[in-house]
Amino acid sequence: MSAKRGHAAAHLGDFTVRPRMLMITGLALAVGGVGALAALALLRLIGLVTNLVFYQRWNVSLVAPGLVHHPWWLVLCAPVLGGLVVGLMARYGSEKIRGHGMPEAIESILTGGSRIAPKVALLKPISAAISIGTGGPFGAEGPIIMTGGAIGSMLAQLLRLSADERKTLLVSGAAAGMAATFNSPLAAVLLAVELLLFEWRPRSFVPVAASVAVATVSRGFLLGTAPVFPVDATGLHLTAPDEALAVVCGLTGGALAVGATWLVYRAEDAFAKLPFHWMWWPAIGGAIIGLGGLIEPRALGVGYDVIDQLLTGRATLSLIIGILVVKTLIWSLSLGSGTSGGVLAPVFMIGGALGAWEGMLFPHVIPGFWAMCGLAAVVGGVMRSPLTGVVFTLELTHAWGALLPLLVASTAAYALSALVLKRSVLTEKIARRGLHLTREYSTDPLETFFAHEVMHPCPHALDSRTRLDQQLTDTLADLADIPRLIPVTGADGTVSGITTRRRLRDHTSRATANGTVADAAEPCRLVVHTDHTLRQIAYLFAETSLTSAPVIDPGNGRLAGVITLPDLLHARLHDLTEEHHRQRILFQRTPTPAPAPSPAVTAVAAGAASTE
Question: Looking at the 3D structure of the chain, how many domains does it have?
Answer without folding.
Answer: 4
